[in-house]
């Protein structure tokens, strides 16, 4: 799930909604035939040959260069034959044939440019998708004794990832998790996302405590702040005007770090300025207690080391980590999405939250109904200890 599912849904949507639509390829030849019919059934003083240029222009978006040339040649041939049969070859006919021939040649050339641009775009898109999926890897349904499920939605419809992040890794110290939100959103925040995830994945395997893992991420963010990104080699800016990153001293990330024990019956929580965890136990939704601290990247302002809080989990308990994009999703009246209230309604409905997969599916669909248009990136991940003997 996560970014992997988002990528699959992007591909499925593109397959269901191809551009240009398939029916458009029938329009150029139909327009040629319609033009000839109009020219035959109307008096000679009416001239519709100029419409043939429209068929060539439409062919530019649907056919290869040879197809564009074929449409233009067919139009020229039919127009010449029609005018000869009507014995009405005049200046308008010559002008129409000349314009049609010029437009055909130009359209064929532009068609070649379009196809090369499309090919390049597909290659760039494939590379971008591979990079994005390398950062936000698909979540497994289960890691040892821990059931996991989540979803991810970027505010930018054309991107698979944005400013939210997650990573789940089994380590010698237990199953470690980070869920965070980079300052900013969209494509401009992905560099910080890459820094945090790569630092976490390394530190989670080597550092014995969550505080030390957070310290390693703090150091990486400090390096980013001291060495801000520069313009890339070659022409063109690093970002579009609306996505330029903020000042280097504003690099920080709100995050929550989790460490599940080997049997997933205990979880340690280190809160670095992130949204409160939601706990569901026996149908009751509550906020998990944490020691709220400053975000990652602001360790130089801490007056005391952040403290990890330990919680006991029973089989069937569910712990949910999410970003503020979920709780700040607004409906048409501007009302924020009430996550805990909606979850309590679900749990009080009789069926209960069920599995983590069912729960995150409910959140994803419910947020989409509440706020059809996203203003921020979304991530939500649910964790549940598996009952004894469940394989």
Automatic annotation (TrEMBL):
SUPFAM superfamilies: PP2C-like. Keywords: Hydrolase, Membrane, Transmembrane, Transmembrane helix. The chain crosses the membrane at residues 51-80, 92-113. It is an enzyme of class 3 (hydrolase). Its EC number is 3.1.3.16. The keyword Transmembrane helix applies. It comes from the Bacteria. The keyword Hydrolase applies. GO terms for molecular function: protein serine/threonine phosphatase activity. Residues 146-385 form the PPM-type phosphatase domain. This is PP2C family protein-serine/threonine phosphatase. It comes from Streptomyces violaceorubidus.
């Amino acid at each position: 799930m996560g970014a992997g599912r988002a990528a699959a849904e992007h591909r499925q949507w593109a397959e269901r909604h191809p551009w240009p639509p398939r029916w458009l390829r029938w329009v150029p030849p139909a327009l040629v035939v319609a033009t000839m019919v109009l020219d035959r059934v109307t008096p000679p003083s009416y001239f519709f040959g100029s419409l043939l240029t429209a068929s060539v222009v439409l062919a530019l978006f649907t056919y290869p260069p040879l197809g564009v040339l074929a449409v233009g040649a067919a139009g020229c041939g039919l127009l010449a034959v029609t005018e000869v049969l009507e014995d009405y070859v005049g200046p308008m006919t010559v002008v129409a044939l000349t314009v049609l021939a010029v437009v055909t040649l130009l359209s064929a050339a532009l068609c070649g440019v379009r196809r090369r641009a499309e090919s390049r775009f597909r290659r760039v898109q494939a590379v971008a998708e591979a990079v994005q999926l390398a950062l936000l890897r698909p979540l497994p349904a289960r890691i040892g004794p821990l059931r996991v499920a989540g979803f991810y939605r970027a505010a930018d419809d054309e991107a698979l990832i944005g400013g939210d992040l997650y990573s789940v890794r089994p380590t010698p110290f237990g199953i470690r998790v980070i869920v965070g939100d980079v300052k900013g959103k969209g494509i401009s925040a992905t560099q910080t996302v890459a820094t945090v995830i790569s630092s976490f994945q390394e530190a989670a395997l080597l550092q014995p405590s969550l505080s030390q893992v957070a310290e390693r991420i703090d150091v990486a963010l400090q390096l980013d702040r001291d060495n801000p990104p520069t313009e890339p080699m070659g022409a063109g800016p690093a970002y579009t005007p609306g996505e330029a990153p903020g000042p280097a001293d504003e690099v920080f990330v709100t995050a929550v770090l989790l460490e599940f024990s080997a049997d997933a019956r205990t979880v340690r929580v280190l809160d670095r300025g992130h949204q409160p965890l939601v706990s569901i136990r026996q149908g009751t939704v509550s906020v998990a207690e944490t020691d709220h601290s400053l975000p990652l990247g602001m360790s130089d302002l801490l007056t005391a080391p952040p403290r990890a809080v330990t919680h006991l989990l029973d089989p069937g308990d569910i712990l949910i980590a999410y970003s503020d994009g979920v709780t700040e999703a607004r409906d048409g009246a501007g009302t924020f999405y009430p996550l805990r209230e909606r979850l309590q309604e679900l749990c009080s409905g009789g069926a209960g939250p069920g599995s983590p997969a069912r729960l995150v599916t409910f959140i994803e669909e419910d947020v989409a109904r509440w706020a059809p248009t996203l203003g921020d990136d979304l991530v939500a991940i649910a964790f549940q200890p598996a009952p004894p003997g469940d394989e």
